[in-house]
Amino acid sequence: MLSFTGKRLLGLGHRVSAAAVAGRGYHERVVDHYDNPRNVGSFDKTDPSVGTGLVGAPACGDVMKLQIRVDEDSGKIVDACFKTFGCGSAIASSSVATEWVKGKKMEEVLSIKNTEIAKHLSLPPVKLHCSMLAEDAIKAAVKDYEAKKAKHSGNADQVEKA
Amino acid sequence: MVQGSFVTELRARESPLARTRALSRFASCCRCSPCSVAGRQFLENNCLNVFLIMRRSKNCSLFSLLRTSLKELVYESEAKRGLWLSASSLVHEDLHLHPRIPSDLLINTRSFSIPVKRFDCASNYGGPGHHDFTEFRVLNRFLCSSEAGSGELPKCWNCGGDAVSPGPFLACGLCGSVQPVDQSIDFFQIFGLERTYEIKDGNLEGKYKDWQKKLHPDLVHSKSEKEKMFAAEQSARVIDAYRTLSKPLLRAIYLLKLEDVHVDEEKTITDPDLLAEMMDIREAVEEANDSHALNQIQTQVEEKFEKWSRFFEQVFKMHDFDNAITATERMRYYDRALEEITKKL
Q: Which of A1, A20, A60, A147 is an active site residue?
Protein backbone atom coordinates (compact mmCIF):
# COMPACT_ATOMS: atom_id res chain seq x y z
CA MET A 1 0.00 0.00 0.00
CA LEU A 2 2.73 2.48 0.89
CA SER A 3 6.16 2.63 -0.58
CA PHE A 4 9.02 1.72 1.70
CA THR A 5 10.21 5.33 1.89
CA GLY A 6 6.75 6.41 2.88
CA LYS A 7 6.68 3.84 5.66
CA ARG A 8 10.07 4.92 6.90
CA LEU A 9 9.09 8.56 7.06
CA LEU A 10 5.93 7.86 8.89
CA GLY A 11 7.47 5.45 11.33
CA LEU A 12 4.38 3.35 10.98
CA GLY A 13 5.21 -0.27 10.66
CA HIS A 14 2.35 -2.39 9.48
CA ARG A 15 -0.45 -0.93 11.56
CA VAL A 16 -3.10 -0.30 8.96
CA SER A 17 -3.42 -2.84 6.22
CA ALA A 18 -5.58 -2.47 3.16
CA ALA A 19 -7.96 -5.08 4.52
CA ALA A 20 -8.56 -3.15 7.69
CA VAL A 21 -9.37 -0.03 5.72
CA ALA A 22 -11.87 -1.74 3.50
CA GLY A 23 -13.63 -3.83 6.14
CA ARG A 24 -13.71 -2.02 9.43
CA GLY A 25 -13.56 1.44 7.93
CA TYR A 26 -11.06 3.97 9.08
CA HIS A 27 -12.60 7.24 8.04
CA GLU A 28 -11.36 8.43 4.66
CA ARG A 29 -9.67 11.42 6.22
CA VAL A 30 -7.64 9.14 8.45
CA VAL A 31 -6.67 7.06 5.44
CA ASP A 32 -5.77 10.22 3.56
CA HIS A 33 -3.36 11.30 6.26
CA TYR A 34 -1.86 7.84 6.17
CA ASP A 35 -1.50 7.70 2.40
CA ASN A 36 -0.39 11.28 1.94
CA PRO A 37 1.72 12.05 4.92
CA ARG A 38 2.19 15.71 5.46
CA ASN A 39 4.54 17.44 7.85
CA VAL A 40 6.37 14.32 8.83
CA GLY A 41 9.88 14.97 10.00
CA SER A 42 12.05 16.60 12.61
CA PHE A 43 13.39 20.01 13.42
CA ASP A 44 16.58 20.67 15.27
CA LYS A 45 15.75 20.37 18.94
CA THR A 46 18.42 22.81 20.01
CA ASP A 47 17.19 25.58 17.74
CA PRO A 48 15.80 28.31 19.99
CA SER A 49 12.85 28.98 17.75
CA VAL A 50 11.71 25.35 17.91
CA GLY A 51 9.40 23.95 20.56
CA THR A 52 9.20 20.17 20.98
CA GLY A 53 6.25 18.36 22.50
CA LEU A 54 6.82 14.71 23.38
CA VAL A 55 3.88 12.79 24.79
CA GLY A 56 2.83 9.20 25.31
CA ALA A 57 -0.34 7.26 25.98
CA PRO A 58 -0.05 4.76 28.84
CA ALA A 59 -2.90 2.56 27.69
CA CYS A 60 -1.49 1.60 24.30
CA GLY A 61 2.18 2.54 24.43
CA ASP A 62 1.95 5.19 21.71
CA VAL A 63 4.59 7.91 21.36
CA MET A 64 3.93 11.25 19.69
CA LYS A 65 6.40 14.02 18.91
CA LEU A 66 5.14 17.36 17.65
CA GLN A 67 7.49 20.24 16.85
CA ILE A 68 6.69 23.87 16.09
CA ARG A 69 8.84 26.60 14.67
CA VAL A 70 7.87 30.01 16.00
CA ASP A 71 8.64 33.40 14.55
CA GLU A 72 9.95 35.42 17.48
CA ASP A 73 8.68 38.78 16.40
CA SER A 74 5.12 37.94 15.53
CA GLY A 75 4.67 35.03 17.90
CA LYS A 76 3.18 33.02 15.06
CA ILE A 77 3.88 29.40 14.29
CA VAL A 78 5.46 29.31 10.87
CA ASP A 79 6.10 25.61 10.55
CA ALA A 80 5.27 22.35 12.27
CA CYS A 81 6.20 18.72 11.93
CA PHE A 82 5.43 15.49 13.72
CA LYS A 83 6.55 11.93 14.25
CA THR A 84 4.20 9.41 15.75
CA PHE A 85 4.49 5.73 16.57
CA GLY A 86 1.08 4.34 17.06
CA CYS A 87 -2.20 3.47 15.40
CA GLY A 88 -3.64 5.15 12.28
CA SER A 89 -5.87 7.36 14.38
CA ALA A 90 -2.94 8.65 16.44
CA ILE A 91 -0.94 9.41 13.31
CA ALA A 92 -3.85 11.17 11.67
CA SER A 93 -4.57 13.18 14.81
CA SER A 94 -1.03 14.46 15.04
CA SER A 95 -0.97 15.16 11.31
CA VAL A 96 -4.14 17.23 11.59
CA ALA A 97 -2.66 19.01 14.60
CA THR A 98 0.41 20.09 12.63
CA GLU A 99 -1.79 21.35 9.81
CA TRP A 100 -3.99 23.35 12.12
CA VAL A 101 -1.23 25.05 14.09
CA LYS A 102 0.51 26.46 11.06
CA GLY A 103 0.03 30.19 10.71
CA LYS A 104 -1.65 30.59 14.07
CA LYS A 105 -0.49 32.48 17.12
CA MET A 106 0.61 30.49 20.11
CA GLU A 107 -2.29 31.58 22.31
CA GLU A 108 -4.78 30.59 19.64
CA VAL A 109 -3.23 27.20 19.27
CA LEU A 110 -3.73 26.41 22.93
CA SER A 111 -7.47 26.55 22.40
CA ILE A 112 -7.49 23.70 19.88
CA LYS A 113 -9.60 21.00 21.51
CA ASN A 114 -9.29 17.25 21.07
CA THR A 115 -13.01 17.08 20.34
CA GLU A 116 -12.52 19.19 17.22
CA ILE A 117 -9.79 16.89 15.97
CA ALA A 118 -11.89 13.85 16.75
CA LYS A 119 -14.87 15.28 14.94
CA HIS A 120 -12.79 16.21 11.90
CA LEU A 121 -11.54 12.64 11.64
CA SER A 122 -14.77 10.99 12.77
CA LEU A 123 -12.87 9.03 15.39
CA PRO A 124 -14.77 6.24 17.13
CA PRO A 125 -15.08 6.44 20.95
CA VAL A 126 -12.33 3.90 21.49
CA LYS A 127 -9.86 6.19 19.66
CA LEU A 128 -10.75 9.45 21.35
CA HIS A 129 -7.64 9.28 23.50
CA CYS A 130 -5.55 9.66 20.31
CA SER A 131 -6.99 13.10 19.72
CA MET A 132 -6.41 13.91 23.39
CA LEU A 133 -2.79 12.96 22.89
CA ALA A 134 -2.54 15.36 19.93
CA GLU A 135 -3.98 18.19 22.00
CA ASP A 136 -1.51 17.45 24.77
CA ALA A 137 1.33 17.37 22.24
CA ILE A 138 0.45 20.86 21.00
CA LYS A 139 0.36 22.19 24.54
CA ALA A 140 3.65 20.50 25.38
CA ALA A 141 5.34 21.99 22.30
CA VAL A 142 4.17 25.49 23.19
CA LYS A 143 5.25 25.03 26.79
CA ASP A 144 8.66 23.84 25.67
CA TYR A 145 9.10 26.86 23.41
CA GLU A 146 8.11 29.25 26.19
CA ALA A 147 10.51 27.61 28.59
CA LYS A 148 13.31 27.86 26.07
CA LYS A 149 12.52 31.50 25.42
CA ALA A 150 12.54 32.31 29.11
CA LYS A 151 15.83 30.53 29.59
CA HIS A 152 17.32 32.18 26.53
CA SER A 153 16.34 35.68 27.62
CA GLY A 154 17.51 34.84 31.12
CA ASN A 155 20.95 33.94 29.73
CA ALA A 156 21.01 37.06 27.58
CA ASP A 157 20.37 39.19 30.67
CA GLN A 158 23.21 37.50 32.50
CA VAL A 159 25.55 38.08 29.59
CA GLU A 160 24.61 41.73 29.49
CA LYS A 161 25.19 42.17 33.19
CA ALA A 162 28.60 40.59 32.86
CA MET B 1 -37.02 -0.82 24.84
CA VAL B 2 -40.45 0.63 25.49
CA GLN B 3 -41.00 1.32 29.12
CA GLY B 4 -43.68 -0.64 30.84
CA SER B 5 -44.30 -3.02 28.02
CA PHE B 6 -40.95 -4.62 28.65
CA VAL B 7 -42.23 -6.73 31.51
CA THR B 8 -45.28 -7.84 29.56
CA GLU B 9 -43.06 -8.71 26.66
CA LEU B 10 -40.81 -10.67 28.95
CA ARG B 11 -43.63 -12.68 30.48
CA ALA B 12 -44.97 -13.44 27.04
CA ARG B 13 -41.79 -15.08 25.90
CA GLU B 14 -41.95 -18.77 26.40
CA SER B 15 -38.58 -19.89 25.17
CA PRO B 16 -35.92 -19.61 27.85
CA LEU B 17 -33.39 -18.54 25.26
CA ALA B 18 -35.53 -15.62 24.10
CA ARG B 19 -36.17 -14.64 27.67
CA THR B 20 -32.46 -14.81 28.41
CA ARG B 21 -31.70 -12.54 25.49
CA ALA B 22 -34.30 -10.00 26.55
CA LEU B 23 -33.05 -10.11 30.10
CA SER B 24 -29.43 -9.61 29.13
CA ARG B 25 -30.44 -6.57 27.11
CA PHE B 26 -32.22 -5.26 30.16
CA ALA B 27 -29.24 -6.00 32.38
CA SER B 28 -26.86 -4.14 30.10
CA CYS B 29 -29.33 -1.28 30.08
CA CYS B 30 -29.23 -1.26 33.87
CA ARG B 31 -25.46 -1.20 33.81
CA CYS B 32 -25.30 1.74 31.44
CA SER B 33 -27.71 3.28 33.89
CA PRO B 34 -28.88 6.45 32.16
CA CYS B 35 -28.88 9.26 34.64
CA SER B 36 -32.01 10.79 33.22
CA VAL B 37 -35.06 10.83 35.42
CA ALA B 38 -37.01 8.80 32.91
CA GLY B 39 -34.26 6.22 32.77
CA ARG B 40 -34.07 5.87 36.52
CA GLN B 41 -37.82 5.58 36.76
CA PHE B 42 -37.83 2.83 34.20
CA LEU B 43 -35.21 0.89 36.10
CA GLU B 44 -37.06 1.26 39.38
CA ASN B 45 -40.39 0.27 37.95
CA ASN B 46 -39.11 -2.71 36.14
CA CYS B 47 -36.19 -3.87 38.13
CA LEU B 48 -38.20 -5.65 40.76
CA ASN B 49 -40.56 -7.30 38.34
CA VAL B 50 -37.70 -8.49 36.27
CA PHE B 51 -35.96 -9.60 39.44
CA LEU B 52 -38.93 -11.77 40.25
CA ILE B 53 -39.06 -13.34 36.83
CA MET B 54 -35.34 -13.90 36.88
CA ARG B 55 -35.49 -15.69 40.17
CA ARG B 56 -37.96 -18.13 38.79
CA SER B 57 -35.97 -18.67 35.64
CA LYS B 58 -32.92 -19.51 37.74
CA ASN B 59 -30.47 -17.83 35.40
CA CYS B 60 -27.58 -17.13 37.72
CA SER B 61 -25.24 -14.86 35.88
CA LEU B 62 -27.92 -12.49 34.67
CA PHE B 63 -29.44 -12.62 38.09
CA SER B 64 -26.21 -11.37 39.61
CA LEU B 65 -26.05 -8.55 37.07
CA LEU B 66 -29.52 -7.43 37.99
CA ARG B 67 -28.83 -7.87 41.65
CA THR B 68 -25.93 -5.43 41.32
CA SER B 69 -28.11 -2.88 39.57
CA LEU B 70 -30.82 -3.28 42.18
CA LYS B 71 -28.26 -2.91 44.94
CA GLU B 72 -27.01 0.34 43.46
CA LEU B 73 -30.51 1.71 43.21
CA VAL B 74 -31.37 0.72 46.72
CA TYR B 75 -28.25 2.10 48.34
CA GLU B 76 -28.64 5.35 46.53
CA SER B 77 -31.04 7.08 48.83
CA GLU B 78 -33.41 6.76 51.77
CA ALA B 79 -36.27 7.39 49.41
CA LYS B 80 -35.98 3.93 47.98
CA ARG B 81 -37.84 2.43 50.91
CA GLY B 82 -40.58 1.17 48.67
CA LEU B 83 -38.03 -0.74 46.70
CA TRP B 84 -36.54 -2.29 49.81
CA LEU B 85 -39.88 -3.44 51.08
CA SER B 86 -40.82 -5.03 47.81
CA ALA B 87 -37.52 -6.80 47.39
CA SER B 88 -37.43 -8.04 50.94
CA SER B 89 -40.99 -9.26 50.72
CA LEU B 90 -39.87 -11.45 47.86
CA VAL B 91 -37.37 -13.06 50.13
CA HIS B 92 -39.92 -13.58 52.90
CA GLU B 93 -42.28 -15.07 50.38
CA ASP B 94 -39.69 -17.63 49.48
CA LEU B 95 -39.15 -18.59 53.05
CA HIS B 96 -42.79 -18.76 54.09
CA LEU B 97 -43.67 -20.98 51.21
CA HIS B 98 -40.62 -23.14 51.52
CA PRO B 99 -39.34 -23.27 55.04
CA ARG B 100 -36.60 -25.61 54.01
CA ILE B 101 -35.13 -24.05 50.93
CA PRO B 102 -34.86 -26.88 48.42
CA SER B 103 -32.07 -26.58 45.94
CA ASP B 104 -34.20 -26.53 42.85
CA LEU B 105 -36.20 -23.48 43.89
CA LEU B 106 -33.58 -21.07 45.09
CA ILE B 107 -30.43 -20.40 43.16
CA ASN B 108 -27.63 -22.12 44.97
CA THR B 109 -24.71 -19.82 44.92
CA ARG B 110 -23.01 -18.98 48.15
CA SER B 111 -24.68 -15.62 48.27
CA PHE B 112 -28.22 -16.87 48.18
CA SER B 113 -28.43 -19.96 50.29
CA ILE B 114 -29.55 -18.34 53.51
CA PRO B 115 -30.60 -20.70 56.30
CA VAL B 116 -34.05 -20.16 57.74
CA LYS B 117 -33.12 -19.58 61.35
CA ARG B 118 -31.22 -16.39 60.56
CA PHE B 119 -34.33 -14.87 59.14
CA ASP B 120 -36.39 -15.90 62.11
CA CYS B 121 -34.01 -13.95 64.29
CA ALA B 122 -34.27 -10.97 62.00
CA SER B 123 -38.04 -10.95 61.78
CA ASN B 124 -38.38 -11.44 65.51
CA TYR B 125 -36.60 -8.21 65.98
CA GLY B 126 -39.82 -6.48 66.76
CA GLY B 127 -42.37 -3.84 66.14
CA PRO B 128 -43.00 -1.10 63.64
CA GLY B 129 -40.22 1.05 64.98
CA HIS B 130 -37.68 -1.50 63.90
CA HIS B 131 -39.37 -2.33 60.70
CA ASP B 132 -37.09 -0.33 58.44
CA PHE B 133 -33.99 -1.61 60.04
CA THR B 134 -35.13 -5.21 59.79
CA GLU B 135 -36.11 -4.86 56.18
CA PHE B 136 -32.83 -3.22 55.40
CA ARG B 137 -30.84 -5.90 57.12
CA VAL B 138 -32.81 -8.62 55.44
CA LEU B 139 -32.31 -7.03 52.08
CA ASN B 140 -28.73 -6.30 52.89
CA ARG B 141 -28.00 -9.94 53.53
CA PHE B 142 -29.92 -10.97 50.50
CA LEU B 143 -28.08 -8.57 48.28
CA CYS B 144 -24.59 -8.73 49.66
CA SER B 145 -22.27 -11.00 47.83
CA SER B 146 -20.79 -14.03 49.47
CA GLU B 147 -20.26 -13.48 53.15
CA ALA B 148 -16.98 -14.76 54.33
CA GLY B 149 -17.19 -16.75 57.50
CA SER B 150 -20.78 -17.73 56.93
CA GLY B 151 -19.31 -21.17 57.11
CA GLU B 152 -21.29 -22.53 54.23
CA LEU B 153 -19.77 -24.48 51.41
CA PRO B 154 -21.23 -23.79 48.02
CA LYS B 155 -23.57 -26.49 46.87
CA CYS B 156 -24.00 -27.95 43.44
CA TRP B 157 -27.19 -26.72 41.77
CA ASN B 158 -27.73 -30.12 40.24
CA CYS B 159 -27.12 -32.72 42.89
CA GLY B 160 -26.96 -30.51 45.97
CA GLY B 161 -23.59 -31.94 46.89
CA ASP B 162 -21.07 -29.88 48.78
CA ALA B 163 -18.14 -28.37 47.02
CA VAL B 164 -15.24 -30.67 47.47
CA SER B 165 -12.07 -28.86 48.32
CA PRO B 166 -9.28 -28.33 47.36
CA GLY B 167 -9.59 -26.28 44.27
CA PRO B 168 -12.08 -23.69 43.11
CA PHE B 169 -15.65 -24.82 42.65
CA LEU B 170 -16.03 -24.57 38.89
CA ALA B 171 -17.50 -28.00 38.30
CA CYS B 172 -19.12 -30.37 40.77
CA GLY B 173 -16.83 -33.14 41.91
CA LEU B 174 -19.74 -35.55 42.43
CA CYS B 175 -22.01 -35.18 39.43
CA GLY B 176 -19.70 -33.26 37.10
CA SER B 177 -22.12 -30.41 36.45
CA VAL B 178 -20.56 -27.11 35.49
CA GLN B 179 -21.25 -24.45 38.07
CA PRO B 180 -22.13 -20.80 37.50
CA VAL B 181 -19.27 -18.33 37.42
CA ASP B 182 -18.30 -17.01 40.82
CA GLN B 183 -16.56 -13.69 40.28
CA SER B 184 -14.97 -13.83 43.69
CA ILE B 185 -12.71 -16.66 42.53
CA ASP B 186 -9.76 -14.87 41.00
CA PHE B 187 -7.52 -16.11 38.22
CA PHE B 188 -4.79 -17.21 40.57
CA GLN B 189 -7.18 -19.41 42.49
CA ILE B 190 -8.34 -21.07 39.28
CA PHE B 191 -4.79 -22.19 38.66
CA GLY B 192 -4.08 -22.94 42.27
CA LEU B 193 -1.36 -20.32 42.51
CA GLU B 194 -0.35 -17.79 45.11
CA ARG B 195 -1.19 -14.21 44.34
CA THR B 196 2.34 -13.23 43.44
CA TYR B 197 4.01 -11.92 40.35
CA GLU B 198 6.57 -14.64 40.07
CA ILE B 199 5.14 -18.00 39.06
CA LYS B 200 7.70 -20.70 38.77
CA ASP B 201 6.61 -24.09 37.49
CA GLY B 202 3.04 -23.02 37.51
CA ASN B 203 2.32 -25.57 34.78
CA LEU B 204 -0.27 -23.21 33.43
CA GLU B 205 -0.78 -25.08 30.23
CA GLY B 206 -1.36 -28.42 31.91
CA LYS B 207 -3.87 -27.03 34.36
CA TYR B 208 -5.57 -25.09 31.60
CA LYS B 209 -6.10 -28.25 29.60
CA ASP B 210 -7.34 -30.09 32.66
CA TRP B 211 -9.96 -27.45 33.29
CA GLN B 212 -11.12 -27.42 29.70
CA LYS B 213 -11.61 -31.17 29.89
CA LYS B 214 -14.26 -30.49 32.51
CA LEU B 215 -15.69 -27.17 31.35
CA HIS B 216 -15.57 -27.01 27.58
CA PRO B 217 -18.93 -26.21 25.98
CA ASP B 218 -18.56 -29.11 23.54
CA LEU B 219 -18.89 -31.50 26.47
CA VAL B 220 -22.29 -30.21 27.52
CA HIS B 221 -24.05 -30.05 24.18
CA SER B 222 -26.65 -32.55 25.27
CA LYS B 223 -27.30 -30.95 28.62
CA SER B 224 -29.72 -28.24 29.73
CA GLU B 225 -29.64 -24.66 28.41
CA LYS B 226 -28.63 -23.51 31.82
CA GLU B 227 -25.63 -25.77 32.01
CA LYS B 228 -24.58 -24.87 28.47
CA MET B 229 -24.53 -21.24 29.48
CA PHE B 230 -22.52 -22.02 32.62
CA ALA B 231 -20.02 -23.99 30.53
CA ALA B 232 -19.65 -21.18 28.00
CA GLU B 233 -18.98 -18.62 30.73
CA GLN B 234 -16.73 -20.78 32.87
CA SER B 235 -14.52 -21.92 30.01
CA ALA B 236 -14.30 -18.34 28.72
CA ARG B 237 -13.19 -17.26 32.17
CA VAL B 238 -10.55 -19.97 32.33
CA ILE B 239 -9.25 -18.90 28.91
CA ASP B 240 -9.06 -15.33 30.16
CA ALA B 241 -7.26 -16.46 33.27
CA TYR B 242 -4.76 -18.49 31.27
CA ARG B 243 -4.02 -15.63 28.91
CA THR B 244 -3.67 -13.09 31.68
CA LEU B 245 -1.40 -15.22 33.83
CA SER B 246 0.88 -16.40 31.05
CA LYS B 247 1.98 -12.92 30.02
CA PRO B 248 4.07 -11.05 32.58
CA LEU B 249 2.71 -7.63 31.66
CA LEU B 250 -0.93 -8.73 31.87
CA ARG B 251 -0.21 -10.57 35.08
CA ALA B 252 1.27 -7.44 36.59
CA ILE B 253 -1.70 -5.32 35.59
CA TYR B 254 -4.11 -7.96 36.91
CA LEU B 255 -2.32 -8.06 40.24
CA LEU B 256 -2.68 -4.32 40.56
CA LYS B 257 -6.35 -4.64 39.71
CA LEU B 258 -6.83 -7.23 42.44
CA GLU B 259 -5.25 -4.86 44.92
CA ASP B 260 -7.81 -2.26 43.85
CA VAL B 261 -5.11 0.08 42.59
CA HIS B 262 -6.64 2.45 40.13
CA VAL B 263 -4.47 3.10 37.09
CA ASP B 264 -5.50 6.25 35.27
CA GLU B 265 -5.24 5.18 31.67
CA GLU B 266 -6.39 8.53 30.36
CA LYS B 267 -3.51 10.55 31.68
CA THR B 268 -0.89 11.45 29.12
CA ILE B 269 2.68 10.52 29.89
CA THR B 270 5.13 13.38 29.69
CA ASP B 271 8.23 11.78 31.18
CA PRO B 272 10.87 13.07 28.75
CA ASP B 273 13.43 10.37 29.46
CA LEU B 274 11.10 7.47 28.88
CA LEU B 275 9.56 9.02 25.80
CA ALA B 276 12.87 10.02 24.26
CA GLU B 277 14.14 6.50 24.87
CA MET B 278 11.08 4.97 23.27
CA MET B 279 11.35 7.32 20.30
CA ASP B 280 14.93 6.20 19.79
CA ILE B 281 14.04 2.54 20.05
CA ARG B 282 11.10 2.78 17.69
CA GLU B 283 13.12 4.79 15.18
CA ALA B 284 15.89 2.24 15.34
CA VAL B 285 13.39 -0.53 14.70
CA GLU B 286 12.07 1.34 11.69
CA GLU B 287 15.48 1.90 10.25
CA ALA B 288 16.84 -1.57 10.85
CA ASN B 289 17.07 -3.39 7.56
CA ASP B 290 18.17 -6.88 8.41
CA SER B 291 17.21 -9.45 10.96
CA HIS B 292 20.60 -9.24 12.63
CA ALA B 293 20.13 -5.63 13.57
CA LEU B 294 16.57 -6.31 14.67
CA ASN B 295 17.64 -9.19 16.84
CA GLN B 296 20.17 -6.96 18.51
CA ILE B 297 17.58 -4.36 19.33
CA GLN B 298 15.25 -7.12 20.46
CA THR B 299 17.78 -8.42 22.95
CA GLN B 300 18.37 -4.95 24.31
CA VAL B 301 14.69 -4.23 24.77
CA GLU B 302 14.09 -7.65 26.31
CA GLU B 303 16.79 -6.90 28.84
CA LYS B 304 15.14 -3.62 29.74
CA PHE B 305 11.81 -5.36 30.07
CA GLU B 306 13.35 -7.93 32.38
CA LYS B 307 14.90 -5.23 34.53
CA TRP B 308 11.61 -3.46 35.01
CA SER B 309 9.82 -6.73 35.49
CA ARG B 310 12.06 -7.54 38.43
CA PHE B 311 11.60 -4.02 39.72
CA PHE B 312 7.86 -4.51 39.60
CA GLU B 313 8.14 -7.68 41.60
CA GLN B 314 10.14 -5.91 44.30
CA VAL B 315 7.95 -2.86 44.67
CA PHE B 316 4.76 -4.87 44.46
CA LYS B 317 5.83 -7.05 47.34
CA MET B 318 6.40 -3.92 49.38
CA HIS B 319 3.00 -2.59 48.33
CA ASP B 320 4.68 0.43 46.76
CA PHE B 321 1.93 0.81 44.21
CA ASP B 322 3.01 4.11 42.67
CA ASN B 323 6.28 2.63 41.59
CA ALA B 324 4.48 -0.51 40.54
CA ILE B 325 2.32 1.49 38.17
CA THR B 326 5.38 3.23 36.74
CA ALA B 327 6.95 -0.16 36.19
CA THR B 328 3.91 -1.45 34.31
CA GLU B 329 3.91 1.62 32.10
CA ARG B 330 7.50 1.03 31.16
CA MET B 331 6.87 -2.65 30.59
CA ARG B 332 3.99 -1.82 28.31
CA TYR B 333 6.17 0.44 26.19
CA TYR B 334 8.88 -2.16 25.87
CA ASP B 335 6.27 -4.79 25.12
CA ARG B 336 4.93 -2.65 22.28
CA ALA B 337 8.40 -2.22 20.87
CA LEU B 338 8.96 -5.98 21.04
CA GLU B 339 5.67 -6.54 19.22
CA GLU B 340 6.80 -4.24 16.43
CA ILE B 341 10.13 -6.03 16.16
CA THR B 342 8.41 -9.40 15.98
CA LYS B 343 6.15 -8.12 13.23
CA LYS B 344 9.10 -6.96 11.25
CA LEU B 345 11.10 -10.13 11.64
A: A60
